Amino acid sequence: MKKMKAACLTKIPKEIEVQEIPVPEIGENEFLVKMHACSLCYTDVKACVHGKHFYIELYGLPWTPGHEMAGEIAAVGDQVTGYSVGQRVAVAPFNPCLECPPCKLGAYRFCHKAPGSFVQPGGFAEYFKVPGEGAHLRTLVLQDSVSYEEAALVEPVASCLHAVRKAGVPQGSTAAVIGAGPMGLILMQLAKAEGAAKVFMVDVDDQRLEQALDFGADEVINSAKENANQAIRLKTGFMGADVVFEAVGSAQTYLLALEMARGGGAVSLFGGMPGGSTVEIPSELLHYHELTITGTSSFSPDDYKNALELIEAGKIDVKRLISHRFDSLDGVLEAINLSLDKQGLKKVVLL
Ligand SMILES: [Zn+2]
Ligand SMILES: [Zn+2]
Asked: What InterPro entries does its record include (predicted)?
């Protein structure tokens, strides 16, 4: 049996070692991808620290993290159509069945079958296999102009695009993004690409805010130094932002997002909080301010496709989001530690 290397979480918290495991064997309706780029998502970081991930809950440890992947097709089962060995692809970590009731409503994240068809063993491995069924929804062939590292970032861009489209960013509107981490920077770029005339970036870290200006934010607000709600009102003729994206995931910033939106505006709650978290919100913000509040997590096949198109068209700069590149799977633990220390932006393993 052919062996390969994979980063494996063997114990909670954060015991990660590179192990030799069998290269996944493919069935006639599956294909094998040689991983060339996998970027670390904060969801992986949280899963490695707390062990809370549906795959760990289903199958236990060891578990191979990573779901932002791109690579080259290395083998294709007999029944797979439309794909061939040698194609460069971006692979989304989902496989909605399109037939169950949530899929039929377009709520793919809630597909009754999705968890069972996740890529195996995970992105931080030399090879991973994906189901051939519905492959066109999740496996996109790359243009030569798109590098593997850019293709790995289609996934986080798709998640942000899902949030931006659900909240809606009207032409000429004013948007605010709370949290200037990698996802906040993607949300900011997407809000502009979708039509925002002005985007404010809010964070507590001056260095991150400087960086946000570099990435194209129009104005920044340090919410540790000034009252961000007052600041945005002063800068918008006492209106507030038309749409606010929360990309931190804390009770305090959920509340701030609702406060910063104008009456009748929209708020996108993008940042996730640990299960069981609650948020206390003054009722007038919910009722009298007539806000439209959307929550998103994950994305649809169309978001994934459109995210790649935006990268191809140069409308979203994902290359500059990559702060750390590792040339072996041994880098996964360091990447996790850097993320926990809030160092840098996206960390990518390139093989
Ligand atoms: Zn992700
Ligand atoms: Zn389904």
From this structure: ADH-like_C, ADH-like_N, ADH_Zn_CS, ER, GroES-like_sf, NAD(P)-bd_dom_sf, Zn_alcohol_dh
